[in-house]
Amino acid sequence: MSILFASRGDDPQAWETALREAGCTLPFTAELPSAPDPAIRYLLTWQPPARLYRNLPGLRAIFSLGAGVDHLFENGPPPGDIPIIRLRDAGMAGQMSEYALWAVIGHHRQMHAYRRRQQERRWAPLPARPAAKIRVLVLGLGVLGEAVANTVRAQGYSVSGWARRPREIAGIDCLHGQAALATALGQTDVLINLLPLTAETRGMIASTLFARLKPGACFVNIARGAHVVERDLLQALDSGVIDHAVLDVFAEEPLPEQHPFWTHPGIIVTPHIAAQTLTGPSARQIAENIALLEAGGTPDGLVSREQGY
Predict the structure, then answer these.
(1) Is the domain of 231 the same as that of 132?
(2) Do 77 and 58 touch, CB atoms closer than 8 A?
(3) Active-site residue numbers?
(4) What confidence tens digit (pLDDT) does each residue in 129-171 have?
(5) Which range marks the domain in which residue 286 is found?
(6) Cα within 13 Å of Cα(149), Cβ side
């Protein structure tokens, strides 16, 4: 039995070394099988190649090298009886929280407005605002969403969170249901998207949602680009419905050179770096889960196919 590593842009040698250091001794390969290979038991992957699953008849588990799992289904769904396991943190929560806090502080201190004034060579201080008056709404209260909400709240901001199902997080006003979301949007200064990408959430952030936001709000997307209807976001910015957006994820990545997001004065673009997978912590988590599976146990981070996360 062995491990297959299939992740574009990642260094297989670094992952093999990290797994060895974490105590995993199973044979490791990054060579994709050209024919069915029953010896491969575990797949470590991000954006797996098309038709890969058909050559893995002995597969016992799929490890997603990230918090999301939507990429596993893009080229055909994995076999229905194979467990899918996602990284529950592995160093990503801290990074995501830093990025979100940077965006919130930028809006609070009106840095986007000052950037425009700099380009105009205009010295024009704006009135100061206390952090407690800035209302932040986090969409999605999984591991990463909860971490972001707590980090932002610790800096004195007023933070609410919304999820499809009821949640309880100390100090965070947790909301669920469409009616509660509609009400919360009207009071929101900064909207942070951390929803999982599912059939229900794809395209959810569109004109109707933007129109419900508090005028002058900021939108931050650090989940998936497919959550957003891009033309609706551009229209919301151009019409002044929202003031600016901070975008780390996009429907097509890398973002095409001619895409209007690059040059739009109301958008900050970053290249999907809000939370990058850290090899060492991730390998330790994977090694622990492989040991659990080999012992007949239940791994941490098991994905519900029905829910999509």
Answers:
(1) yes
(2) no
(3) 224, 272
(4) 999 999 999 999 999 999 999 999 999 999 999 998 999 999 9
(5) 2-90+277-294
(6) 26
